[in-house]
Amino acid sequence: MYVAVKGGERAIDSAHALLDEQRRGDPAVAEISPTQISEQMGLAVDRVMSEGALYDRDLAALALKQACGDQVEAIFLLRAFRTTLARFAASTPIDSAAMNTRRRISATYKDLPGGQMLGPTFDYTHRLLDFTLAETPGAARSERRAKSERPVTADYPVADDGDELPVLPRVSEFLSREGLLQDEVAEDDQPVGDITRDPIAFPAERDVRLQALARADEGFLLGLGYSTQRGYGRNHPFAGEIRLGDVAVEIVPEELGFAIEIGDITVSECEMVNQFTGSAQAPAQFTRGYGLAFGYCERKVMAMALVDRALRARELGEEVTAPAQDDEFVLSHSDNVEASGFVQHLKLPHYVDFQGELETVRKLRADADKARHGDDKQCDNPVSDTPKETAS
Questions:
Q1: CB neighbours (10 Å) of residue 341?
Q2: What angle do CA 87, 291, 246 make, to 5 degrees?
Q3: What values do phi and psi take at 228, rounded to 5?
Q4: How many other C-beta atoms lie within 10 A of the C-beta of residue 122?
């Protein structure tokens, strides 16, 4: 018989105390601070900010510390805090063309006006553990800086007051000038959807899709993007341009009537370029997939751009054959907070439900046994129904 397990306030308090103890670890080791997490675990912080939909490095670092490094739990904490904040304005669209760029690469044009900028990247590192990082704090960094021919900060422009940063043209502009890239015209008169206030309706428009993809789980998007490259959706693009840098955020206060800058944020941006064979309404040309996320989330925005392009299949008249092309499938399963909640709710008591299913399974087994035994009796007396005269 199944016996229900009960828990009380003391048990829950003890569980919280154990969690605090696990979070702290060995007291002999110095406690990590949110500032250290923010400064030295920056990519983890950026992912939490991006999928938590709140640009605040300090809070994201605090959430990571509270969650013992569990990123989905930290994203949940940040999302929950976000709901407590008042909204005082909506920003104007950021201008990433005017980005203070730290990294800019293109796989379609080698010689870009303004040049390619490697910036901080794992791309050219050997995937070997660097044990110097565990020996003397700062030793590896000092050694690499000593090998560098010039200061690291000279690799990209720095936004000092009064300086005008160079504007780097987009790679997509080169294709647009030749008419080889599908135009994407901004519809300023159309209201932009807001998935934080309105539930997503299907089929979803592109503005809603991009919002959902920006908050989507990186691993889920990476898997879907990978599937499109392997043939599920025939989506094998070129990385038109990938950028990392700081952009200004502006709002237009009603009492002023003109835009004012309220700060800078770091974003990653990706434009994928896909071949489009044309249709009855459009000639053969290239189309775009787009990705944008807070912080340094290059892999995330690349996957996002792949999935964005796949989700444009219907509007481009392409056959929808793969999961990555189905907006209902993608958007309904991409949010890791919702997915985590639904999966983890299985830990909550389901005693009554399980008892009901237990009884059902027992009854089905009993009915099956009864039916089988009935058949066996019939098989044991195969001549019982045979007329006597025939049997004789």
A1: 12
A2: 65
A3: -70, -35
A4: 9
Task: Please write the tens of the pLDDT for every residue from 226-239.
Answer: 999 999 987 778 99
Low-confidence ranges of the chain (pLDDT < 50): 1-4, 153-159, 383-392
Vertex 280 angle, CA 278 and 283, to 5°: 35
Are 302 and 244 within 8 A, CB to CB?
no
Q: What is the pLDDT of residue 268?
A: 97
* pLDDT tens figures, 41-57: 999 999 999 999 999 99
Give the contacts of 143 (CB within 8 A, at least 6 positions apart). 132
DSSP-based three-state secondary structure for 192 = coil
Of the candidates 84, 20, 31, the residue with the CA atom closest to the CA atom of residue 56? 84
Cα separation, 204 vs 331, in Å, equals: 9
Do 241 and 171 form a contact (C-beta atoms < 8 A)?
yes
Residue 285: the pLDDT is 84
Confidence (pLDDT) at 143 = 65
How far does Cα 369 stand from its chain's mean position?
50
Domains of the chain, residue spans:
32-86, 96-124+166-343
